[in-house]
Amino acid sequence: MADDAIPQSTLPYPPVYREKRFVVLSDWDGTITTQDSNDYMTDNLGFGKAKRRAGNLEILSGRQTFRDGFREMLESIVANGHSFDECKEELKKNIKLDSGFKDFNTWCSANDIPVVIVSSGMAPSIRAVLSNLVGEEVANSIDIIANEVEIEPSGKWHIKFRHPSSGYGHDKSRAILPYKDLVSPPLLFFFGDGVSDMSAARHADVLFVKQKDDGENDLAAYCTREGIPHIIFTDFVQALSVVKAVVSGEKTKDEVLARGTAA
């Protein structure tokens, strides 16, 4: 799925966090939140869950790129006449935060560990929902690396991909790899759950994969198939105990990865 050439970004990146011992990068939809906001919009405002799941399986198998499948999902929402502002309000009413994320983020902040959201969604909708869930002050302290949205005078809108030449649309590995080039690179924790996280999965130092109750555990299936070490977690309460153990030196990254679960 990924292109061999390094994809050029159409959007700026926030500065890399230098001189940090640890950095947390996390997917947004279905990882920090309990439900994927784009899936929610597609299921309820677009062409529906059955067609979305069929598309996800095509992406997982490699028969379709994430970029093209995701674009089709969003186009179905626009085709049904839903404005971007309407979508944001719908998400603010229905998307919930992982029960442990606030405490996780507070602990990271207190220990000088940056938390960065790395998402294949759209930054304006993420920022709107995040501010609604944690307040503007906390939300503004968290960098968001995501796609953008373009709204036409007619009100129709479409996604502006960060890496339009990449099959991912937003190749999340590009948010991780600059850290690897630092003289003293930090240890990178990455949290994800789905097909959009596949490009980042093998580049994280400690990869957390969220276990979901609905059976849509595509990233776990991919990591198992590809032999990528990962830790299964159900919420950020579990994840925090593992991160604390690594940061304190109580456990090494290899030790927590060998266990395979945060439970």
TrEMBL record:
Keyword Phosphoprotein: no
Species in which this protein is naturally found: Mycena belliarum
Keyword Hydrolase appears in the UniProt entry: yes
Domain of life assignment: Eukaryota
SUPFAM superfamilies: HAD-like (SSF56784)
Record protein name field: HAD-like domain-containing protein
MF terms (GO), sorted A to Z: phosphatase activity
Organismal lineage: Eukaryota, Fungi, Dikarya, Basidiomycota, Agaricomycotina
Residues forming coiled coils: none
Alphabetical UniProt keywords: Hydrolase
